[in-house]
Amino acid sequence: MTDKVLGVILGGGQGSRLSPLTQTRSKPAVPIAGKYRLVDIPISNCLNSGIHRMFVLTQFNSASLNKHIKNTYHFSHFSTAFVDILAAEQTVQNSGWFQGTADAVRQCMHHIVSHEFDYILILSGDQLYQMDFKDMIEKHIEANAEITIATIPVTAKDATDFGILKADDENMITSFIEKPKTGLEDWISDTGAEMQGEGRNFLASMGIYVFNREYLINILNENEEEKDFGKEILPRAISQSRVLSYQYEGYWTDIGNISSFFEANLGLTDEIPKFNMFDSNHAIFTRARMLPPSKISGTTLDKTIIAEGCIIQASKVEHAVLGIRSRIGKDTVITNAYIMGSDRYQTLEEIQEETSKGNSLIGIGDRCFINNAIIDKNCRIGNDVKINGGNHLEDGDFELYAVKDGIVVIKKGAVVPSGTVI
Q1: What is the pLDDT of residues 215-253, one digit of tens each?
Q2: Is the peptide bond before 20 cis (omega within 30 degrees of 0)?
Q3: What is the DSSP letter of 418?
Q4: Which positions fall inside the Nucleotidyl transferase domain (predicted)?
Q5: What is the CATH number of domain 295-416?
Q6: Residue 44: how many CB atoms within 10 A of its CB?
């Protein structure tokens, strides 16, 4: 796979549905599971599948993503492996931003084709899943396909949020519709007995594609007005070319909004999580930070993931993810929460100075109550703060926090004064 396949990871657009987590960073740079970034997921899937050459296409708020990739993915001088950023750039031929997924690949094609490869694997940078791309590419080659689309069976309720496909007996895609609202009964597919038993009767596109090299070059050049794969390129290709459906039945979720992001992270605390971070065959790679072990004093823990370098004195932490360098004070209770942690430790001198001035420290103070919340990085939560998310709160965007679907999101670097109640 190393010589045959080149990976291209789409960095996503503005990510407004994931705001305020995307106010200062791109979607692929959003921290997940306490120690990773979203972009680590597709990169790790590629590396585990023997695909060692990747481009990441970025446009919005890309500085932190660039820094993460630069500090993380280093390979031997004797290896051809790389993970490189391709940012939107003005050229003589094009002076505009990326206008869609296909347009992003088109604009970067002059960089991509300078490398040798037979197949190009196009991935999204904001999905949580573990897939062996080797099998997908082998099926693509066996079927003599020009495009292969990874598909996943979904229920009728979920079908309206995806591009839905129909395939023939040879798994060749015959028709496609984007986010159907009516006439769903016409799009039922034979997804297999197990999937049908779960009511998952519709084949949804996962936004994961394999293209033959020359075919992709030609189809992007044929009509430069087509800017998006899902809405324009693929529907046209299905009527003209051999497009294979590769059905995937494992865990996969599209991190599209705050609710799905929150659910995906807290789902990792389940006794047997759907996304298995402990599978050595599907290791997740990320930056090696050389942090000390976490230190926990007097805390009752249940269904909790704790990353490295934390200092925890809370009375109770339940159903929560605690990110790197999290600091939580005494007698604090945290339930149903993702605490992202911080980028640095405060020195003893800084702590003494801040305390003498009555300022809050980085982390969460004493006697706090936090429920149904996401605390972004580098926040300072004072003492006796109560944050209780839930359906009783109306959605809104405020100076220090936002509320989305009842989930309170404290903005990155926010200072929440002692005694605050949300």
Answers
A1: 999 988 887 777 778 778 888 888 889 999 999 989 999
A2: yes
A3: T
A4: 7-270
A5: 2.160.10.10
A6: 17
Same fold, 2-269 and 295-416: no
Note the pTM of the prediction, 2 decimals: 0.92
Helix/strand/coil for 124: strand
The Cα 250–Cα 244 span in angstroms is: 19
> Nearest-CA neighbor of 422 among 383, 385, 382, 378?
385
How many C-beta neighbours within 10 Å does residue 158 have? 15
Question: Where in 67-201 does DSSP place strands (E)?
Answer: 82-87, 119-124, 127-129, 147-154, 163-167, 173-178
CATH architecture classification, 2-269: Alpha-Beta Complex (3.90)
In whole angstroms, what is the distance from residue 145 CA to residue 139 CA? 9
* Pairwise CA distance, residues 229 & 206, whole Å: 12
Instruction: Give the CA distances from residue 317 to residues 206, 290, 322, 368, in Å, rounded to whole numbers and listed in that order.
Output: 35, 25, 9, 12
> What is the rounded CA–CA span in Å between residue 15 and residue 28?
10
Domain boundaries of the chain, sorted by first residue? 2-269, 295-416
Q: What's at 9, amino acid-wise?
A: I
